[in-house]
Amino acid sequence: MLSTVVQLLNNIGSKREVEQYLKYFTSVNSQQFAVIKVGGAIITQNLKELASSLAFLNHVGLFPIILHGSGPQINEILEAEGVVPEYIDGIRVTDGKTMNVVRKVFLEQNLKLVEALEALDVRARPITGGVFTADYLDKDRYQLVGKISKVNKTPIESAINDGYLPILTSLAESPEGQILNVNADVAAGELARVIEPLKIVYLNEKGGLIHGETGDKISVINLDEEYDSLMKQSWVKYGTKLKIKEIRDLLMHLPRSSSVAIISIHDLQRELFTDSGAGTLIRR
Ligand code: X2W
């Protein structure tokens, strides 16, 4: 098995690197390999590549925990219905009508990914509830949007113990049973905080964080030195600001050696199995 894997990965790293990483990833309990956040745009634009990359990981015995968004797909439906999407600081203002769309689209996109994985002989389990408990973030401002207060790992652990890849949405539930919308970058951060995985990866369609003025991809962000000045820059706003803030909060809670990689789906194998990595690396 190992030699097949190494052969397959030969084009991205040296045999030594790949073997080392594979040994490292399989050394911990299988629930703690990786949390991978999948931006909604990737399900639309790169579903085949996403599914085959995840299938590959699963076929070598790894069980990444996948949490996906659906932002662009939700906007598409809202716009078709004549509703203008409204955001405050990167968070969708979610009224009752919008919530119906959010729920429907999240379930559709989740199923789409699960089916694409099943087509590649991967057992994948949709987990669209029962993990995140949330209070209202600010009911007057955002309406049906949650701030996660508790993460229940049990459905994820059961899925992996049963041999299934867990595929999660970022929907949460209030203690009273109201479904609440949560930004998927934020939910992935809260999830990673509880799972404490070896790898935390955010997949986006840009392949990293792009500097708003130079247009260049940022290769490393050292939060201790750069966070304050970064947050003051005019191009760091909305979803980007929210993402960086969430990643900082997460890394403050994890061992100092932890880091988060923001990469494109094309770079997933390179990020996981080589020393060089890819995209934007964020560390303390
Ligand atoms: C997000 C959840 C989906 C999401 C929304 O309604 O768009 C809030 O903003 P991406 O594809 O990762 O952007 N929820 C409260 O974050 O999807």
Describe, in plain words, how this protein is organized in 3D.
- The chain has 284 residues and is an alpha/beta fold.
- It is built from 12 helices and 14 strands.
- A hairpin with a 2-residue loop joins strand 3 (87-88) and strand 4.
- The protein starts with a helix and ends with a strand.
- N-acetyl-L-glutamyl 5-phosphate binds next to helix 5 and strand 4.
Distance between the termini: 36 Å
Which structural class best describes the helix and strand composition? alpha/beta
Secondary-structure element sequence?
Answer: HHEHHEHEEHEEHEHEEEHEEHHEHE
Percent of residues in β-strands: 15-25%
What is the average per-residue confidence, as pLDDT, rounded to a whole number? 95
